[in-house]
What does this fold into?
Amino acid sequence: MIVVMSVSATEEELQQVAATIESRGLRSLRMPGGDRVAIGIPSAIPTDVREPLFQTLSVLPGVEHVTHVSRPYKLASREFHRADTVVEVKGVCFGRRQIQVITGPCSVENYGQMRTAAQVAKASGATVLRGGAFKPRTSPYAFQGLQQEGLKILQEVGYETGLVTISEVMQPDLVGVVASYVDILQIGARNMQNFPLLIEAGRSGHPVMLKRGPSATIDEFLLAAEYLLHYNNAQVLLCERGVHPLDRGYTRNTLDLNAVPVLKEISHLPVIVDPSHGTGVSRYVPAMALAAVAAGADGLMVEMHPNPREALSDGAQSLTPAQLQTLMAQLRELAQAVGREI
Ligand code: PEP
Ligand code: MN
It folds into this structure.
């Protein structure tokens, strides 16, 4: 952060700015310029201090303006990498003009279910097939996923249909196993700050889609992405999937679509939106999927089940094959209107 003082700022005003910075436990650095002085903060500023400090400094006497010159995350920021990052997985590019649609059921349940889902996905124009095999369930009594058996099924139907595959990994020691079956590793919302998992997924070099935690700020989200990048994995997709809602009775989460233009501005990484977990209600999914494309998302993750009423997880938010077809047609039209394609 740099505080640029006005030309007429007095010594007293300069000292007040320095004292305000130092009262937060930070170092201040006076940087005399041609006709004015700037005061910089040369160290990392804790996330919870940054915004309030920015506001306080902005209104001090003698201050002309305050700018963030350096963010807590480096590799994930546009300051570091100006051009959009394109993540290419088997010819499917995230971060270019084409919007990629990831679809499939919440959980892999059996071969027949996945085969049907894959055929529907393929016919709809989606490029990536999802299916959870290791499931993060709130209750230990809920379906936990078919685990390695599920990964085998996903790999098989992905191969049969030529779709790229994605599935969640929940623990560091399983990164290698999951990566051996699927093309993209998913790090779920609940594990966004599972640092050993981020480190292992980073080291794997395998493409990763990182979901935003339900209570994570944008900075925390990008710092989690920073772990992946720091451990030498440049193939990172960010996924907004909703934050804790105010209105619990209506939607499961609140899809934070503000995050899309914000992330696109401050980071170079492709942004995916998941309106399924974002709403938790299948009838709201199309509206939010369309809104996400209008907001500038590079991809969507939409849960679809051959028979949502029989789904072992997240049936209430899963589209039917017919609903997915209808949505894809609407998305295609909208994409064109905003200079994209599907
Ligand atoms: C999922 O994609 O099925 C999932 C569990 O998502 P999230 O981590 O966003 O809750
Ligand atoms: Mn789900």
Remarks:
- The CA atoms of residues 257 and 308 lie 26 Å apart.
- DSSP finds eleven helices and 14 strands in the chain.
- The chain has two domains: 2-67, 87-337.
- The chain has a mean pLDDT of 95.
